[in-house]
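To: structure subgroup
Subject: Chain for Friday's discussion

All,

I'm putting the inputs and outputs inline so they're searchable in the archive.
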Amino acid sequence: MEDRLKLLEVINNNTTISQKKIADLIGISTGKVNYLIQDLFINGFVHSQKHGRNMSYFLTEKGLDLLQEGIESFKEKKLNIHQAKVEKEVKLAVILAAGHRKDFDKPAGLLELDGKQVIRRNIEILQDNGINQFVIVTGYRKEAFQEFRLLPNIQFVENRKYKWTGSMASLAVARQYINDDFLLIEDDIVIEESAVKRLINNPQRDCILITNESGSGDEAFVEIRNGFLYKLSKDIHHFNRIDGEMIGVSKFSLDVFEKMVDAYEHYNENPYMNYEYMLLDIARNYNVGYLKINNIVWAEVDTRKQYERALKKIYPIMKRKEAAYRENQIIEYLVSAFNIGKESIQEIQPFGGMTNKNYKVLIDGQEYVLRISGIGTEKMINRWEEKYNAQIASTLGIDADLLYFNEQNGIKISRLIPEAETLNTKTAKREDNMIMTTNVLKQLHQSNQAMASTFNVFNKITEYEMLLAEFNGSTYPGYDQIKKQVMQLKELYMDMDVVLVPCHNDTVPENFVKSGEQKIYLIDWEYAGMNDPMWDIAAHSLECEFSEEDEELFLSYYLEQSEIPHDIKIRILMNKIFQDFLWTIWTNIKEAKGENFGAYGLERFHRAKENLSILMSKEKKYALSK
């Protein structure tokens, strides 16, 4: 507050105070006090009365108005809790699911819409948008969440007093698991994906999501002032104006969350306090932002009536809007890539994909495949290197024509392979397919091309371990012991002086696509790079579940000889061990990000252990035979 406002406040509280005392109270010189009082006299804010040797000062009506305006202005000044402009990637979500709704015999989040539980739908949306850690606060019928306890990266915490407390108590019990910014969502909220995505990507670290009033009769009204949260209440009579309705999805910084919990634990005496009102208390001193999106399709399923409305009306609208949203995104990609009008795009169909999303598209009578990279893959895949390597494969005729590749976002468009038939573990064992597969691998390995990267398994192990730590993932029991044995093979392997050649490095049968009976393509070059050609052989053998006889036949076509040298057999076995160990960590990373791979990773881990024993036995026998 300015010095003259401080002076007016002092005079308003004590009319008989001396100028020296005023100076002491507001921390300025007596001379400056005298100057300010004279200025206030001249402008009609103060008048005085003399009583003997003493002087009394009084505020005029004009002075009172000035002081009031100053105080109001000061009250509206808030602190920026985040002084440094730091971009924060939100990786954690907290789901409040403790409450009991009298209309249901289960938590509201476990109600189903079109065969999928509300809470599962929300988790999947969050995972698709980069969130990989979850905290679920339970209370009523906590045992009903049993199936979710089997999913990776979900921590459960119980609000044992859910019957007698509000949502702030539920949020507070989750404190032990919250160590970073997070998204909060109430379990009874069903909301379109685009709104969640925009909130996650909003640069404000503290941000409530609001929309236009729903007219439901149970709205949480919001008033915004100076660009930040000012009022929040379900009572419309509290507002000068209404800027929107709060939805139960918000983004919190760790700093604001901790202030909320501290205030709740140390000053609050109302156990029924809800988190949004505690947030409002914090917003009196700190800036809390907002994101307003009009016409969001959303619903609350707090009562039987709300649930039926969501089921019959809101959710069908939401599905249509989300499908249109995804299709519009795809259309925008295609329009930009081909520089065409929207009218040229005739058809879009999902086309498989595990990590990435693939679509078959028909444009002016021509068929193409559009690849959209999965969330989080940018940390595991160098898209510039993938583009370079995929162009090599396309030029060699090993892969379909590469027409467009955006190394910033991983969008890729290729010509559709005609009469496409993807190999599987059964068809890959057919001799005619083995002949075509080995021919493609020989063409790649003998091409004398220099790929943009080198696939070094030992460097990848270190890289993946760092990513696993970043995502707070964990390894399987006995990991350190197996890693030690794997790393002991490194020196033996390096002594083999293997010549590195262009390799695909992910030769699963599904990456081999037949076109008719005479042509086969090798697709998806995300992991490609210079490597030991036996890596590709070992990978194909593992992924196709070759028997010893299958592998022997495959190698006879690849090497063009029936006798398989011992060093080739040992290199293949070593590469199998390296791969199983590496992809075990890859699986741990994926599971840390919320994906479920079942027993896949653990089976590879156990196979690595078994093959380590087999390798030792083979080497002993070979040494004795010599």
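Points worth raising on Friday:
The chain has a mean pLDDT of 89.
Residues 35 and 112 are 73 Å apart (CA to CA).

D.
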